[in-house]
Amino acid sequence: MERYSGFGLVKHGLRYHENWQRVWRNPEPKKEYDVIVVGGGGHGLATAYYLAREHGITNVAVIEKGWLGGGNTARNTTIVRSNYLWDESAALYEHSLKLWEGLSQELNYNVMFSQRGVMNLGHTLQDMRDIQRRVNANRLNGIDSEVIDPQQIKEIVPAMDCSANRRYPVLGASWQPRAGVARHDAVAWGFARGADSRGVDLLQQTAVTGIREKDGKVLGVETNRGFIGARTVGCVVAGNSGVLAGMAGLKLPIESHPLQALVSEPIKPVLDTVVMSNHVHGYISQSDKGDLVIGAGIDSYNGYGQRGSYPTIEHTLQAIVELFPSFSRVRMNRQWGGIVDTCPDACPILSATPIEGLFFNCGWGTGGFKATPGSGHVFAWTLAHGKAHPIAEPFSIDRFNTGALIDEHGAAGVAH
Ligand SMILES: Cc1cc2nc3c(=O)[nH]c(=O)nc-3n(C[C@H](O)[C@H](O)[C@H](O)COP(=O)(O)OP(=O)(O)OC[C@H]3O[C@@H](n4cnc5c(N)ncnc54)[C@H](O)[C@@H]3O)c2cc1C
């Protein structure tokens, strides 16, 4: 694999950029692999990367029905943070945030991780109590988090209307300085390149159409390119998790919903952090290109179409204009949707199933991008050892039998 560097860029420039290597191969499927990962989004690719990198398991295929990163990974608004309420989720997301901090160097690929801070606004007394509680919990878990007042907010975000006479006045916020944003597709491509260079086969345009099992053990997957065998299969297909589980005769406590985002025309730098409000129900950041990146809450109906409804967009833009009246004249450029896999307790499932060798990594809902490296890291361990990584243990599907749910609705909400 060619090592990327500033020097290499100059060298290629002198050769008119004609000799760049392909970033990954396009192999024919083998008859059998040690591990199959279904889903070539960020989580699936990270799983394959860490299987090869950390566990030396390289006879691995990632099977993707479309193109790498074409699902939620490249449709999300890229917010990365770890300020979750409960110990179990704080451990998972903080594990991920620590991996983010070294990811560009680790992958030798610039994922443009920008730790510009994330603030979650409070507009009512109850919001502020919840914020205080979550900040305290975060600090007990060693996560950087503080409560800031409207004056501090105004200093960080001068464009926001923090005046007391707004309909929903800003009373304060939680603030995580190490949080931020990253370049979504670069994350998928970086993991793909790293996995491919270690021998992982990335099979695009290959849809899994069935899961073959015998005597309670998985044997492999049926695809539109024929049967591919493996004794370990990890399904990482986000909004399609229910469909994949159905192929194995299983039911997951997951609902698939459209989730939308939109970006404006590029404007001059005006916002150098991420602002979220669960109460007025919207969030916003500014990309390096200058677009305002705006995210909505989920559309309430279930569906698999990667598009959403107009009322949800309208509602979101009302929220943004409430916070930033001056943005009312900015024109919106593009809008799109993804299909998110939501769990009743707003937490993921990282779990074995009743079928030996078949595992699921799903339920990340509106907030899994931030978990991409951490999820891949612990899921690879889980697949390699055939049992849950200690960080993944509380996220077993068994929690829906035992009742040991981890309710993260407060930390998830509209706030991705
Ligand atoms: C609009 C929007 C905004 C978001 N904002 C944020 C945010 O700011 N921060 C955050 O942390 N999270 C955010 N998220 C959530 C985040 O995008 C997801 O949780 C995360 O990207 C999921 O990654 P993944 O790899 O599991 O899924 P995906 O990237 O969706 O990958 C799953 C892959 O599986 C493939 N697949 C499905 N079925 C099959 C099959 N039968 N055979 C083969 N392949 C199959 C799909 O084609 C897809 O490529 C947002 C999501 C959306 C839609």
Description of the structure:
It is a single chain. The chain is an alpha/beta fold and 416 residues long. It has twelve helices and 19 strands. The chain has helices spanning 6-14, 42-55, 87-101, 103-107, 125-140, 150-156, 184-197, 241-247, 310-323, 372-385, 399-402, 409-412; strands at 35-38, 60-63, 79-80, 118-122, 146-148, 172-176, 180-181, 201-203, 208-214, 217-223, 226-229, 232-235, 255-264, 274-277, 282-286, 292-298, 332-342, 349-352, 358-362. It has an eight-stranded mixed β-sheet with strand order 5-6-4-14-15-16-13-17. Strands 8-2-1-12-19-18 form a six-stranded mixed β-sheet, sandwiched between helices. A three-stranded antiparallel β-sheet has the order 9-10-11, with no helix packed on it. A hairpin with a 2-residue loop joins strand 9 and strand 10. It is globular, with a radius of gyration of 21 Å. The mean pLDDT is 96. The chain binds flavin-adenine dinucleotide. Residues 38-44, 63-66, 70-73, 75-79, 207-208, 236-238, 240, 244, 259-261, 295, 338, 340, 364, 366-370, 416 line the site of flavin-adenine dinucleotide. It is found in: Cytoplasm.
Largest sheet: 8 strands, mixed
Strand order of the largest sheet: 5-6-4-14-15-16-13-17
Beginning-to-end CA distance, first to last residue: 34 Å
Strand content: 15-25%
Organism: Natronocella acetinitrilica
EC number: 1.5.3.24
Cofactor: FAD; FMN
GO cellular component, one term: cytoplasm
